[in-house]
Description:
Number of helices: 9
Helix content: 25-40%
Number of domains: 2
CATH superfamily of the largest domain: Acetylglutamate kinase-like
Bound molecules: adenosine-5'-diphosphate, magnesium ion
Structural class: alpha/beta
Largest sheet: 8 strands, mixed
Strand order of the largest sheet: 3-9-2-1-12-16-17-15
Low-confidence stretches: none
Shape: globular
CATH architecture of the largest domain: 3-Layer(aba) Sandwich
Strand content: 15-25%
Number of strands: 17
Radius of gyration: 19 Å
CATH topology of the largest domain: Carbamate kinase
Mean pLDDT: 95
Amino acid sequence: MQRLVIAFGGNAMLQAKQKGTAEEQRANIHTACMAVADLVEAGNQVIVTHGNGPQVGAVLLQNELAKAEVPPMPLDVCGAATQGQIGYMIQQSLTNILAERAIPKPVVSLVTQVLVDENDAAFRYPTKPIGSFYTAEEAARFSADLGWVMREDKARGGWRRVVPSPDPIRIVERSAVRSLLAGEALVITAGGGGIPVVERAGKLHGVEAVIDKDLASERLACDVEADTLMILTDVPEVAINFNTPEQVNLRGLALAEAKRYYGEGHFKPGSMGPKVLAAIRFIEDGGKRSIITSLGLAGQAVRGLAGTIITP
Ligand code: ADP
Ligand code: MG
């Protein structure tokens, strides 16, 4: 039996051009959960994590549009809301699929906090764009009234709020996750990278930040002593010279090579960059294998037959 942490990208739940209706999300999640069920059926113990970019964007927009009637919630609370909604859909879908296959297994999604350091440089240099696009006037108003840091996205013609993206230190609920695993549960946890919290005088407090879900998944994989960290996105392999005539897709990759390519800047920040960084960190932290591939290739990749596979 292998223990696998599987991180679903935003695409597994919502494809570009989709509007994000509940039906669309359910259908995408069903496809992703079929892949998870295949891995469970093959005898693996699976822990699921997921992104929440489009969903938290929608919650923030709802806040924005309804603020005259309903008090807007801070970002940590919005993150928790998306863990609940996405976790619920995954949990229900997996429960139904496992029942169809007569695999008796409790499925549970866990609201998960992730500890970050208040002195992380990310808090001084926010980089992660979230929520809607605004005009320059609106942006000036939000920064004056709400203290938001706003940045112009010239390519897409608008201003967006940017928030810090600190490094995850530890999954607060890690011992609860381990207990659930000991009880043979299929656990969905650390959704959206987890709710970022800081510790002050021994107490946890939510903060206005977003943790990268691939880096949080790596922490989780260490905390549960997973054999494999598997990051599922929408490309079959990681590439060097991506999107150029010299593009080369990578299959087997030793840690040192992965680090060299990472250092040479082959992987875009905010998309492939954090995935490769998470894959590297997992091996450096003692993990056996990191895989980056597409949803459809998950089963083959676990057997070593597809995807980019990074090993010591
Ligand atoms: P997710 O939503 O699954 O987390 P992202 O969209 O953030 O995924 O990142 C995956 C995307 O990264 C791919 O669709 C691809 O367009 C892009 N990408 C950037 N650099 C590379 C690279 N070097 N190799 C492969 N894909 C890359
Ligand atoms: Mg994406």
